[in-house]
Amino acid sequence: MRSLSLLVSGLLALLCAVPALAQEDLRPAKLMVVQPSQDVVSRRFFGRITARNTVDLSFRAGGQIEELPIREGEFVKQGDLLGKLDTGPFERAVREAQAQLDQAERQLKRVTELGAGIVPQADIDDARTARDVAQVGYDDAVENLEDAALIAPFDALISQRLADRYATIAAGEPIVRAHDMSEIQIEIKAPEILFRKFGEQPEFAAKARLTHDGPLYPLEFRELTAEATEVGQTYRVSFALTTDTPDHLLPGASATVLTEISRADGNGVVILPASALRFTPDGTAQVLVFAADDGDAQTGTLTAHDVVIEPGSGTSFRMIEGPEHGATIVAAGAAMLSDGDRVRRFAGLSDDGGQP
């Protein structure tokens, strides 16, 4: 009787151990949840200090420079006199234009008073046209006289004097180069590959170091050139210094710009490690989706799912099309598994629930 009890107890223990043995026989698989990532890349760039605007200023009319009271490296205020032409020729031009206008007005008055009965209507119309042309000439002469003085259009740093006093210059010929320093900007040149990865309008988070081992100053994105340079295939990106900065900063000075670049839409993309991919004989990329068993989240069945991918950074890939966010897939060793395989969740040496 005692032997029978021992035999029954042994059989019951064996039956209870069968599920555990069956689970141990399942191949372990490291799993991950499909979820978007910002796919942020950190880069360090050489930067160059620039002004908000840089303008080559010139006179609207030609003449001889009579005054040029500015010096290179000097800061000027809006409205300050930068240069002045000899006004003699312009004053004579005004008097000449005034005389021509007076003559045209007298002629128009004379033919108008005579009337169309004596003077042909065409002569009256010609006189009116001549008066209008003379008025335009007078207005131009007055404007040229007023523009004989070159005035600073904004608070500016004069970086170069492009002409000298007593020089005779043509209309539109640059005289001085002025920088609008109301906002100090920093330019970098970003390679084309970053825009292929993050789209046409990536999002930049940037800081600048102006001296070796100096403090970091926050930057705000300003603009991006939409055309790459012929040499190097780079795009110019401009940032603005938004806090108080040292007074010694001048255009052309160097800076180190630390950036974090991501997609502007903020939605992110799904990043897949190379080990999460398997390929069919025809080259189609697939991932293996894990479906947990009812009542046991640690075991389940794998189902192959086609995906569309593109290269990412390093050995990772960006998933363009594939399983919905929240799905659980095999993260490592997918090439060694097949559609329909049963696996158990691999938790490693720590209780991380099988997450990578």
From TrEMBL:
Q: Which Gene3D superfamilies match?
A: 2.40.30.170, 2.40.420.20, 2.40.50.100, Helix hairpin bin
What UniProt keywords are attached to this protein's entry?
A: Signal
CC annotations in GO: efflux pump complex
Asked whether the keyword Lyase is assigned, the reply is: no
The domain of life for this entry's organism is Bacteria
Query: What is an example of a GO molecular function annotated in this UniProt entry?
Result: efflux transmembrane transporter activity
Q: Which InterPro entries match?
A: RND_pump_MFP
Q: Which SUPFAM superfamilies match?
A: HlyD-like secretion proteins
Q: What's the protein here called?
A: RND family efflux transporter, MFP subunit
